[in-house]
Amino acid sequence: MWIYLNDRFVKDTEAVVSVFDHGFLYGDGVYETIRSYGSWIFMRDQHLARLRRSAAAIGLTIPIPEHRWPGLLHEAMIRNDVGNEHTDAYLRITISRGAGDIGLDPALCPTPTIVIMTKLLHPPSPELYRTGVTLIVAETRRNLPSALSPQIKATNFLNNILAKREAIAAGAFDSILLNWESHVTECTVSNIFFVRAGRLCTPALACGLLDGITRDIVLSLAQEAQIPVDEGHFGVEDMYQADECFLTNTSMEVMPVTMLDRHPVGKGTPGLLTQQIQRLFIANRAHLKEP
What we know:
This protein is an alpha+beta fold. It has helices at about 20-25, 45-55, 70-80, 125-130, 160-170, 215-225, 235-240, 270-290; strands at about 1-5, 10, 30-35, 40, 90-95, 115-120, 135-140, 175-180, 185, 190-195, 200-205, 230, 245-250, 255-260, 265.
């Protein structure tokens, strides 16, 4: 595997980061995960814009100019023989504060560490889209937004990892994190939607969740299709009473949820509105790809 590290592509055996890197020592960094459909990098500019916003929010200057990123991402795919007519690619960009003396002062790190990794995308099994996945409500609560903004896509992921451990222990696909007021926020790596009485519901950003790019697409598609949408503050009981539920993120797109805390969601099968959103998303994706 070829990996872009700081200013050049190197083999994975040479892609070594210092033990003094503040990303390693303190989780001081930001990242983005992106996917391709063939050679087309989906929502590339939106992901790169969010990366810049995350970096700016923690006072981290990205040394690579904006115009160079598309070329670097495509070179990463070409070098690893992914993102072509035969395969889709998974890309991850990580930018840490960089190496410096031990201490919390960002000024200790003169140069950020830049990493671009790309590999074959392994989407979820088609069977999961047919049957839906199982969720639990985690005991772990979402970080307080006033302590750490969820709009910063930070490399410090311990909050999400703790919730993921709960899902694994319960044999579930993922966990829902509640906020400090017991309102639903998101899952560990995805946004969440549910359907109630024909209305598409999703937690408002004010609940403390990442403004997902796929989430934004789904909201736009629902508006165009004249599907009523509620962005609000919802509790666990609202989820238990839902007729349908689904997750969204870049790699899995729109994933049906059919079980929550060992109870079926609706009829326990992917719902009609969920399937409509899936179709709209696929059609929109094809439209965006057209030259």
